[in-house]
Amino acid sequence: MSESAIDTNVLGDKIVRVLKTIYDPEIPVDIYELGLIYDVFVNEDYDVKILMTLTTPNCPVAETLPLEVEEKVKSINEVKDAEVEITFDPPWSQDLMSEEAKLELGML
After folding, report:
1. Nearest 5°: phi and psi at 43?
2. CB–CB of 51/39 below 8 Å?
3. Residue 102 burial (C-beta neighbours within 10 Å; 0-12, 13-18, 19+)
4. What is the pLDDT of residue 82?
5. Which residues contact 61 (CB under 8 A, 6 or more apart)?
6. What digits encode the pLDDT tens for the residues 59-93?
7. Cis (ω within 30 of 0) for the bond into 90?
8. DSSP, residue by residue, the chain
């Protein structure tokens, strides 16, 4: 592994830590634990693409949440650029929530 090789695991962890600081305004749980993040891709150029969903298509933060995710991920030093793609396939359901989120919301 060369000096310049990207350690995607380390960067992935940093991205997850940042995502865990972003909350759905209607649910007191971060978007990562809610299961709103479907995938995070990082390429050799340190460009990050995040595939995420919203709890509903008419979520009140549909405009601002993806921007917040992009801005916060871009604030990580190693990240050159970040792009968020919203998908509703598969649609979000409570099954996607982590045990931690379900516990937090009294669902366990």
Report:
1. -105, 180
2. yes
3. middle
4. 97
5. 24, 25, 54
6. 888 889 999 999 999 999 999 999 999 999 999 99
7. yes
8. --TT---HHHHHHHHHHHHTT-B-TTSSSBTTTTT-EEEEEE-TT-EEEEEE--SSTT-TTTTHHHHHHHHHHHTSTT--EEEEEE--SSPP-GGGS-HHHHHHTT--
Kindly tell me the burial class for residue 58, based on how many C-beta atoms sit within 10 Å of its own C-beta (0-12, 13-18, 19 or more): exposed
Q: Quote the CA–CA distance of 53 and 87 in Å, as a whole number.
A: 5
Structure-token pair, residue 90:
């598969």
Tracing tokens 């405009």 back to the chain, one arrives at 63
Select from 88, 80, 44, 86 the least CA-distant residue to 68: 86
Residue 74's nearest CA partner among 54, 47, 38, 51 is 47
Answer yes or no: pTM beyond 0.85. yes
Token digits of residue 77: 């030093």
